[in-house]
Amino acid sequence: MEGELKEVREAYESGKTRSLSWRLSQLKALLRLLYDKEDDIFKALEQDLGKHRAEAYRDEVGLLIKSVNYAIGNLRKWMTPNKVSVPLVAFPSRADIVPEPLGVVLIFSSWNFPIGLSLEPLIGAISAGNAIIIKPSELAPESAEFLARSVSKYLDDKLVKVITGGPDAGQKLLDHKWDKIFFTGSPRVGRIVMAAAAKHLTPVSLELGGKCPAIIDSLTNARDRKIAVRRIIGGKWVACSGQACIGVDYILVEEKFAPILIDMLKATIEKFYPAFDTLSKIINKHHFQRLASLIKDPSVADTIVHGGSMDSDKLFIEPTILLDPPLDAEIMTEEIFGPLLPVITVKKIEDSIDFIRTRPKPLAIYAFTQDEKLKNRLVSETSSGSLTFNDTMLQFAIDTLPFGGVGASGFGQYHGKFSFDMFSHKKSVMRRSFLLEYSFRYPPWDGWKLPFMRSVFHFDYVSLLLRLLGLKR
Ligand code: NAD
């Protein structure tokens, strides 16, 4: 490991990553990797998670191809310095914001979207001109091995490396000094990462999880109801069997609508999964046991209204719906991260707002409603990484929206230009002219200098002049 880190650092210091051509060449190489090795990715995801190839393409390969193409198309613009206006006190001068790479960055990824969540931040880190070490999760070993094999083959292997291993490898990596650490994973390990980063004052982004609620208003139109139910299932079981950070964790619905909703969920699950053979498996025995224990307690088990069957050999848990499990049970206090879906009833749908506000800020809130007043209240009265009306998960695919958490769901936003910004330092560059020299800036402090300075700082004469000359609106 030491040798690899030294090599990456030295290669970064050569300045190679700074050019547009290196960055573009790496993004194009990544695109080639995704096209050439699609089948290998499908196989790795099938072995690690039992992910169907359609789901693997929908949630990982396809999204990555879209993101790389977006970065390739915008990179020149992102790298261009931004000219900004200057106040009178600095006139005449020029000021620019120049993005520069941070240096050597460390990316930790999780096991649920092991390819997507390793390569999506990589796109931003390359675009911003950094050297990169990726540490994939050991819990998805085929995907980690695939990344180690193919990244070194397709990308510049002196500047982009994959280091595999478990917590020990992670700890060793954290002992080193990095210029940025980007972490996707649990709050527990997030704390370890932050503590290690603090020693070197390394900036950190934490992409964590939490409990993402979906509010379902009693939609009046039958077609809309049907679509809402499909989209909820798409954002729960179809997304890695509920093992997704932005997957639906639980539903909030009015008491009177709950039975209708549950019937519709059951019918659609049966339609989507007649034999459950395309449903992803639970990642390992430990997580299987964790999920099983969430519904073992009789006070919770008694609330199961659909599903509940499981097979520990196949790591299979049936899509399971619970109606009003106790709110102090673990299933309602911890992130579920699996195929169990509590439906929580409220008297009025507006009560959902208080329900959410009294809990940690989620990574995502979903709300299915046509009520504009409710939408506006949710926008202004709740806080979450994202808020999506009438769909689930799709916000992740929008390059022009920042993706990340707030409060307990993490901090630091990426995707599209936000990724470029996350992995860049915005350097202020000022180019001053020798043309004018203002003596009011210096002693001796004559009586006129203070009032003069006041007028200079208080009033934007430069803008006024530019406006008078028609050069600024
Ligand atoms: P995790 O925290 O167990 O592992 C994440 C990474 O940290 C892995 O690469 C792992 O090898 C490494 N690691 C584990 N222990 C370590 C240690 N002691 N020192 C250094 N490194 C260590 O998380 P996970 O189980 O892989 O992922 C599940 C969690 O991730 C869930 O909470 C989920 O919500 C969250 N998540 C968030 C996002 C997001 O984009 N916000 C996406 C996916 C998952």
TrEMBL record:
GO terms for biological process: aldehyde metabolic process; response to abscisic acid. InterPro entries: Ald_DH_CS_CYS (IPR016160), Aldehyde_DH_dom (IPR015590), Aldehyde_DH_NAD(P) (IPR012394). It comes from the Eukaryota. It catalyses: an aldehyde + NAD(+) + H2O = a carboxylate + NADH + 2 H(+). One of its GO terms (molecular function) is aldehyde dehydrogenase (NAD+) activity. Keywords: NAD, Oxidoreductase. One of its GO terms (cellular component) is cytoplasm. Residues 8-429 form the Aldehyde dehydrogenase domain. Belongs to the aldehyde dehydrogenase family. This is Aldehyde dehydrogenase.
